Each structure stands twice: as structure tokens, then as C-alpha cells.
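Instructor's aside before we start: the two examples that follow are unrelated to each other. I chose them only because their records fit on one page, so don't look for a connection. First example below.
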Amino acid sequence: MQVSLFSGIRKGKLMRWRGVVAAFACGVALMPACGQRQPKTRLKRQEFGKMQNGAPVELFTLTNKSGMEAAVTNYGGILVSLKTPDRNGRLADVVLGFDSLDGYLQPEPYFGAIVGRYANRIGHGTFTLNGVSYTLARNNGENALHGGIKGFDKVVWQAKDVSTDAAPSLELTYLSKDGEEGYPGNLSARVVYTLTDDNELKIDYTATTDKDTV
């Protein structure tokens, strides 16, 4: 998987990243027998838990025609599980995660989450852009890490089913308002997860801003 981060976004410009996870079964035919009707690709949604304020959080499971499954929650855009077939066609989860929202609400190492606005550390929690100095929320000693105290991994994103006949697809969107965690500009982020029939999990990131930001 390619690790993507929101870096150097300029006002009015659309920035795009893509991460792809591919899992292929070895030496086994996953296609249905000739004449057998193929199951349609699908996206299932279910309750995953509730935030401390009572806000509901959902889990979305994308399934392709060979049975591969990717489960994503709209809390932090977390990839909760990725069940892929082995050489014998048996499914196994190949990512680390928790079985319920409660595990993610405790301190944990960003398992499968979207991080932002900035991935990695910003030293001393400060940066200068266009001659203006900004002070960020510090959550890693004196540093700002992965977006701060309440980064993209700790917010509930708006979810929408954008599946096509070709593949199940989930869209998550979030508006990070000007000044959130100390960052400048209203940043509109969009992440789309697509599970193809080639056993690829595609993750597309786009973002726009009304002010220069990192």
C-alpha cells in the first residue's frame, strides 16, 4: 500500500493520491463454473458502535464476486479488516484491527486509519507558511503527530455508497474547518474505497482548500 499524506495543498487546487492493496489467490480458480450465475458485487452497512456523545458509527463491508471482503468504518476511515483468499481459496484477515468501535476509542497505534491533515510529525508543533507562523495541537511530546489530538483518524466521516455495476465502492467525506488543530484553511477531504473483481482494494484521496495549507 502506498502511504499518502496531505502536503502542500494550495488554494483552489485539487490534489489527488492513490493507494492500492492487491491480494491474489495463487493456483486456484476463483471464477464460478461455466453457466453458473455469478453473485453481484455488493456493499453492506451495519452499526459498529456509538461515540461517547451517542453519535452512531457504521461499518461498511465491500465484497467482490470471488468472496474477498474489505470492512471500513466511517470512524477515522479505518480499514477494520481485509479478508483475502489463500492458495486454497480460504479467506483470512490480513490486517490488524478490533472487532468493535470500543477498541479504536482507546489509545492504539492508528491501525488502518486515515491520518491528517498531516502524516508523521511536525517538530515542536509549529510551521511557517507564506510568512505566517502556525501553532498546532501537540500530542507527541512537543510535536504534532498525524494531525494532532483529534486528527482525521478520530472523527466520524460522512459515508455514501457510490458502487457501480463493476465494483462496490464507498465514499467518505469530511470538512476540516479553518483552525482545526491549528491548521489554516477549510479543507474538504474525500476518500473512496473500491474493491475490484481482480482482488484489488483501491483507495483514492482528494482534497480542496480555500487557503494555502500543509
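Example two begins here.
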Amino acid sequence: MNPDEYHALHEAESRHWYYCAKRDFVKQWILRYTKPDGKRRLLDVGSGTGLFAKEMSHHFDVCAMDASAHSLAYLERVLPADRIFEGTLDQTRWEDETFDVITALDVLEHIEDDHAASKAMYRLLRPGGLLVLTVPASMALWSDFDERLHHFRRYNRLGLAALFSLPHWEIQTLRYTNWPVYPAVYLARRIPSIRRVRPENRIPPHWVNRLLYRQFFWSAVTRFRAPFGVSLLLVARRR
């Protein structure tokens, strides 16, 4: 991401509905399948400003990895130096089967070779280890918004499933999320005057913020499976 994006993320993510809901439902899915004891190891890929990694460090032995110098500067504020790693998945120095949990929250779309990233995460996870990731969904929503964030693609359910298929992975859940706001997001991506505004970086009034938080969180944990959405959530185990 551009340097300005990191600053905007840092300013908004502790209160903005999108980031708060995403951290909360990812944590809930992790705790559903993994019992933390402070010793289990979690790798957060593409840690950004490190807020999620910091929160998870209360439950796991967390390592945070990012390739951006701007991200690393933020990570140094919240994590010990020996838990911060510069690089990408294909540059990792860790041995095979090092981690119990790997998270990659809105990261895979920034990686040109996502097949190689999938293989790297498989290699780093211990057998039975858990992978939780989120990605933007639906190429119908593609706009200069994605280009500014250096996205290579947006995903659909079948495409993401193909990256994490049998016999190597056992998918626990793969679902579209944030689908109640899909029509509004679609229109926003089509109207030039709105496209220039980044709603992810502007905190709405409290009641709106809370309402949007609830729909996003609910869409990620309910049994209902929507056929579309603004984002995708994958929870999978390494076999």
C-alpha cells in the first residue's frame, strides 16, 4: 500500500466498523477451532499497523510479517523486535511446520502469485494447523479503488476454494461476508464523485458505525450463506 494508506489505516482501525468487525470475527473463528495457551504460535501475514497482531498476542505467541518499511515502523510500536519480520511468504526463513495458526487479512489480493502463497502457508502450518484469511470479493466491484490499493484481483468463492482444496486442506467455512451493503458498495464504485472518497477511512456517526459493524460481524458468523458479498472469509485446516 501507499504510505498514506498506512497512516489512514492507523487513524481509523481502532474504531471503524469495518476493521473492528473483521478483527472480532476472525478472532472468534480462531478460538472456535484452537485453544490458545500462550505457547501456540500464530503468524500474521501482512500485518499492516499491527493492531490485530497486538490483540492476538494476548492469546498466542505471535509473529508479524510485512514487506513494507512503513508497516514495520508501525509494528515496532506495538510488538517486540524479535517478533517482527520483514519479507514475504516466499522469502520466509522459518522451517516447515512452524505455526499453529496463520492469518492473512486482506493480503492475498496483493500477491501476484497467490498459488505460491497458498503453498507457502501450507508449508509453514503444522498438520492440523488453522488458516484464516479474508479477501475482497466480486470483480463486479473492481474499480480504481482496487488499483490504488495495488490489488491484483478480487475473488469469487470457487476461485478461492481452488487455492485451498483437498487433499492438502480441509475447509471449515468459506463464505461471502459484508453482503448486506453490497448494493451500496456497487453503486459507490460506479459513481466517480463517490469513488474518490474512502469510506473505510472515515468513521461514520456512532449509530451508523454500530449498525454496520453488526451486519458485517453477523454475516461472518451466521449459518446463512449468501451467494454474493463484498468480502470472502476462509477458515481451513492443513491436513
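The longest helix spans residues 17-33.
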